[in-house]
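Its record is quoted verbatim for completeness.
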Amino acid sequence: MNAAPTARVPDGAQPGLVVLFGSGETSASGSKIFQSLTPRLARPLRIAVLETPAGFELNSAQVAGRVADFLAQRLQNDKPQVDVVPARRRGTPFSPDDPDIVAALRPASLLFMGAGSPTYAVRQLRDSLAWQTLLAAHRLGAAVALASAATLAASAQTLPVYEIYKVGEDLHWRAGLDLLAAYGLPLVVIPHWNNAEGGAELDTSHCFMGRERFEALARLLPPGLPILGLDEHTALVIDLVAGACNVMGVGGVTLIREGRERRWDSRASFPVSELGDAHVPGIPAGVPDSVWSEVLKARSAEPEAPAIPDEVLGLVAERKAARAAKDWPRADAVRARLMELGWQVKDTPQGPQLERAAPVGR
């Protein structure tokens, strides 16, 4: 077991949840999964959506932005701060090595990555400041949720889906980012396990590889690596601290380990030890002391009170005057305008108080 330098990880600090989606992270089932997780996340609720897997696409900002909007809307009762982290490509103004670009990762309660290219994500994130920051934030309590390309990229070995399925390259694997290696769980994670888009004519299960081709791929893996297959619209929630895994969503998960195949359906629970010889605490390798220091400082800092725009302050004063004049329709109209701007006003014996809220119509 790795020893934790006290300067890096304070006593009592535990790693956050790991949530692996087979697909459907922005569907109705995905919404329920995220909503069930929020009581277990640090407050204030801060969500960082890492754009990297789609960073090669011209509309990568929109791809990540749709996820951010989905989370802001579906979790609005928890008043999350949702940031898109545009760490798109090394050597550009949107580099995953830029400290300002990745700053929102440091204090996040939940770090999310999703669609794009798994092999591109690995190339851009390996040994990057963004990935080092994610590892440190997770070890210090942030939950990490991965879907689609990100799930593949974070595996011990990454399946190059596009290169094989679309380009026709020979069957092979690429070294992945190996998110869970520090905890003794070098998993090969395969989303879209039960995909059926090919219909009766083409087997597209096992992440579009089909069973026969995937079995050939499995024989190319280093010996002893467990394979974790995730059905679509399904997630596996791994709680390293509690030593428990929970299947959520509409499907199930399949584990192939040491020649044995096991399956758990939705709502099933099983011990983390089924996935491998897990150990907690662990310390992710390759994270510089400077990154640990910055992440720890960000996660320990008191949250800053949001700046209140002059327009909002003026509306509060206007509403107060309307209430004093018993002009209730006007007071209600001003309250509605404040909600449109993302502010909720509460009347207390000490006077009106403002809180941030999800803007109406977002």
Summary: The radius of gyration is 22 Å. Residues 60-74 form the longest helix (15 residues).
